[in-house]
Write a structure and sequence with these properties.
D-Maltodextrin-Binding Protein, domain 2, 2 domains, five-stranded mixed sheet
């Protein structure tokens, strides 16, 4: 399935599931796959006072940034790292003065439920723990979670032992699915992805100093016909009223770089 087809399917599903009520300003939000659970909850909290009702298309940040570059229509972009927001900014795809960090996250190693926890450091026998299987993670070439995972493993000196035993996924949620289905014995995902996931357990957390800070930047997409509403929603996402919802879903309240 091509990237374009994937995006159209995701957007169609988002509109069906989250279609706004009559008379509301329809904001279309392109958002990182790891935000699939929290953003609808944030939208529900936001909609208690404004009439603007966001809809969502979730995919890897790389896919969404490239869709914007190709001319796809959206009002807001929320990425899983600064790099893909920088990509959008460099191509004048966003309104620069609306950019804000809205949340943070943590990186964890996951495996089957009931498996003993491990200490994630340079002594971790990661290749041995795979028992001949593969390590699921977002594709490091395109997916922020995969890039963070690679940087963390490189920092710990573990990357070379597993780089030929990867199961690279098109998004962090697909990497999670590989482990929940038993297709891979281990995976590296965001801590928030494990919330409510069946058949898996968190084996350990990567120390914050093994990878760059995991920040989610949001910005209004240049050319939107709903500029005031889009500005208001991005500002709300990074404000104090949204903070309790972010925390309830396991996200940190990140500080700007």
């Amino acid at each position: 399935m091509t990237t374009g087809v994937v995006w159209r399917v995701l957007l169609a599903l988002a509109i069906v599931v989250c279609a706004p009520g009559a008379g509301a300003t329809q904001l279309t939000v392109f958002a990182a796959a790891s935000l699939t659970d929290v953003l609808p909850a944030l939208a529900a909290a936001y909609a208690k006072s404004p009439t603007d009702t966001p809809t969502f298309a979730f995919a890897a940040s790389s896919v969404l940034a490239r869709q914007l570059e190709a001319g796809a229509s959206a009002d807001i972009f929320v990425a899983a790292d600064e790099e893909w927001m920088d990509y959008a900014a460099a191509r004048a795809l966003i309104v620069a003065d609306t950019r804000a960090v809205v949340a943070g996250n943590r990186l964890v190693l996951i495996g089957p439920a009931g498996q003993a926890p491990v200490v994630i450091d340079a002594k971790l026998p990661l290749a041995g723990l795979l028992r001949g299987g593969r390590l699921a993670l977002g594709d490091p070439a395109h997916v922020p979670a995969g890039r963070y995972a690679r940087l963390a493993l490189e920092k710990l000196g573990l990357w070379s032992s597993v780089e030929d035993r990867l199961a690279p996924a098109e998004s962090v949620r697909v990497a999670l699915m590989y482990v929940t289905r038993g297709e891979t014995p281990l995976g590296i995902v965001y801590a928030t992805d494990t919330r409510g996931a069946a058949n898996i357990g968190v084996l350990g957390e990567f120390a914050a100093d093994t990878h760059p800070p995991i920040r989610y930047p949001a910005a209004v997409v240049r050319g939107t016909a709903a500029l005031p509403a889009a500005r208001a929603f991005v500002a709300w996402l990074s404000g104090p009223d949204a903070a309790p919802v972010w925390r309830r879903y396991g996200f940190g309240i990140a500080t700007p770089p």
